[in-house]
């Protein structure tokens, strides 16, 4: 009854999935190297462009990594593996925990790879800044971990791929991962209610920004997490009833 | 083993009902299986075997009736690692070798068997290092069998375990199954092959249209199924009296007709003729195993046709 073995093989499976490695790890890395590489000496708002762009790509890549746990859930249900697991002593809670942990490991890997790429393009930060940025990123990913589980129970694998692509792109775009959309106060007030805004802002801490305002970020993330968790439970129950 | 004989039954099912939309899959099943028994659920497609198995495994909830597995709920027995199952459908997850997958599933149980031993028993040893996506249908079936065994469960539930296997695969499967049953496990398997049920089960539970239509030792079912059938038109027949006739093992009504399953059709015929002189249109049919099986399965046809 040793769940580390189960988790270890879950991770092994994820690392052996080349498609997943390409999209979650390779894609943001490639964009970073191409775009930041071409603008290495430019500055944006007085900030070196590679640093600015790294924080955006880190939040986008980590978001893809963590939502992708839903793709694996959906695939396992489709092929009947979820039923096979239900006749083992593995609890539903442990099943989800292993998926979330797996998503976080992939997210951390994405973050680490982009940090290394950033360092190669002359991004220099103090250890404390790296650590704080990483910590805030991990917190900011919580609603997206829940979103992944929800999508995994809502959609079939063939529609989930495009859905994950669309959802992550939309969140990345609105949250400012690819650069700020608009600086009008009304617009910023609206996007401040979206979790990806704060995910991107966690990266902006490294830019010397003030970090998260103590209250609004936590409220937005908690509210989205709670709402998505409720939807995930509804989707899980509906999906499980249909499976039997 | 003596202590388990006095413990709760392996499986106890009473008054089980389950519908899927308008389809009544199970319509009042009662079943008791004691620890150590090997029982075949025999019946054609749509008999309710898979639904009954799903309920015993905790994968489906009954609409009515009680189910217990080793004195606890099906889900409780599953989380305690006492139940192992081989489902009829489902593929294996990708990204792992056969050995890795079996090891992964073994790690979920409190007292798993040795993985190498299980791979050997199920004949999966020769392809244990191959990825799960590169297997033939028969190989996948062996892996699924290994997954059911590796947790060392007390109860093994197998839903048509040999469906995807060729003749040789079937032979190998049942050879390993025999060793496992000998170790005191409770085994329940669904099949629609009468020979399989006869050869490998201590007891056969015959199901048709959501009901148990016969339940007994394989030899008894065979005697009942293997004899001849006497059919006669006999209005207002007294089934009790018919069943008491010499050579008759069971009697059923089909409208105006009676159908007598006979172990000795000659005695039954003479006894019928003297006890019920108004019996007419008498027919005697020799039933092969399959014919007799179909006859038993068709048992409550009249009742189904009624609405």
Provide a descriptive summary of the structure in words.
Chain A has 244 residues and is mostly helical. Chain A contains 12 helices and 2 strands. Chain A has a two-stranded antiparallel sheet with strand order 1-2. In chain A, strand 1 and strand 2 form a beta hairpin. Chain A starts with a helix and ends with a helix. Chain B has a 6-stranded mixed beta sheet, with helices on both faces. A 4-stranded antiparallel beta sheet of chain B has the order 11-12-10-13. A 3-stranded antiparallel beta sheet of chain B has the order 2-1-4. Chain B folds into 2 domains: 218 residues, 3-Layer(aba) Sandwich (Rossmann fold), CATH 3.40.50.300; 59 residues, Alpha-Beta Plaits (2-Layer Sandwich), CATH 3.30.70. In chain B, helix 9 packs across helix 12. Chain B is of the alpha/beta class. Chain B is built from 13 helices and 13 strands. Helices cover 36% and strands 28% of the residues of chain B. In chain B, strand 1 and strand 2 form a beta hairpin. The interface between A and B is medium-sized, with 26 and 33 residues.
């Amino acid at each position: 009854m040793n769940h580390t073995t189960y988790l270890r093989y879950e991770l092994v499976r994820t690392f052996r999935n080349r498609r997943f490695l390409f999209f979650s790890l390779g894609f943001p890395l490639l964009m970073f190297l191409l775009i930041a590489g071409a603008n290495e000496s430019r500055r944006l708002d007085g900030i070196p462009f590679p640093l600015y762009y790294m924080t955006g790509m880190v939040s986008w890549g980590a978001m893809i990594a963590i939502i992708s746990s839903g793709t694996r859930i959906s695939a396992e249900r489709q092929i009947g593996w979820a039923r096979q697991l239900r006749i083992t002593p593995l609890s539903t809670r442990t099943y989800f925990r292993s998926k979330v942990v797996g998503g976080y490991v992939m997210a951390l890997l994405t973050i680490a790879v982009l940090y290394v790429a950033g360092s190669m393009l002359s991004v220099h930060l103090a250890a404390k800044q790296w650590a704080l940025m990483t910590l805030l990123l991990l917190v900011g990913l919580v609603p997206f971990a829940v979103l992944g589980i929800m999508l995994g129970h809502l959609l079939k694998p063939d529609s989930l791929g495009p859905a994950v692509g669309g959802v992550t792109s939309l969140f990345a775009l609105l949250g400012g991962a690819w650069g700020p959309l608009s600086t009008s106060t009304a617009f910023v007030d609206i996007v401040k209610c979206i979790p990806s805004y704060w995910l991107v802002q966690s990266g902006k801490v490294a830019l010397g920004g003030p970090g998260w305002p103590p209250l609004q970020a936590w409220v937005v993330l908690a509210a989205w997490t709670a709402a998505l968790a409720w939807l995930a439970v509804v989707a899980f129950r509906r999906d499980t009833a249909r499976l039997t | 083993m003596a202590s388990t004989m006095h413990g709760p039954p392996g499986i106890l099912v009473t008054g089980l009902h389950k519908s899927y939309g308008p389809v009544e899959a199970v319509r009042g099943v009662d079943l008791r299986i004691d620890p150590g028994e090997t029982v075949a659920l025999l019946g054609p497609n749509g008999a309710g075997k898979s639904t009954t198995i799903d309920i015993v495994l905790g994968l489906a909830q009954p609409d009515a009736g009680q189910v217990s597995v080793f004195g606890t709920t099906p889900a409780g027995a599953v989380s305690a690692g006492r139940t192992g199952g081989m489902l009829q459908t489902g593929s294996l997850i990708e990204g792992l070798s056969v050995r890795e997958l079996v090891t992964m599933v073994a790690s979920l149980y409190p007292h798993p068997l040795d993985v190498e031993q299980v791979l050997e028993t199920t004949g999966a040893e020769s392809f244990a290092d191959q990825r799960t996506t590169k297997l033939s249908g028969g190989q996948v079936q062996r892996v699924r069998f290994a997954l059911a065994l590796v947790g060392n469960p007390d109860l093994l539930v197998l839903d048509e375990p040999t469906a995807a296997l060729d003749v040789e695969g079937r032979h190998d499967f049942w050879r390993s199954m025999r060793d496992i049953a000998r170790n005191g496990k409770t085994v329940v398997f669904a099949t629609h092959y009468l020979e399989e049920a006869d050869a490998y089960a201590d007891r056969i539970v015959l199901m048709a249209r959501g009901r148990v239509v016969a339940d007994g030792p394989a030899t008894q079912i065979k005697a009942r199924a293997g004899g001849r059938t006497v059919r006669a038109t006999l209005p207002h027949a007294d089934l009790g009296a018919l069943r008491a006739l010499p050579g008759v093992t069971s009697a059923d009504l089909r409208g105006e007709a009676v159908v007598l399953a006979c172990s000795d059709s000659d005695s039954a015929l003479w006894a019928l003729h003297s006890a019920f002189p108004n019996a007419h249109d008498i027919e005697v049919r020799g039933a092969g195993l399959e014919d007799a099986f179909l006859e038993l399965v068709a048992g409550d046809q009249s009742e189904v046709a009624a609405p």
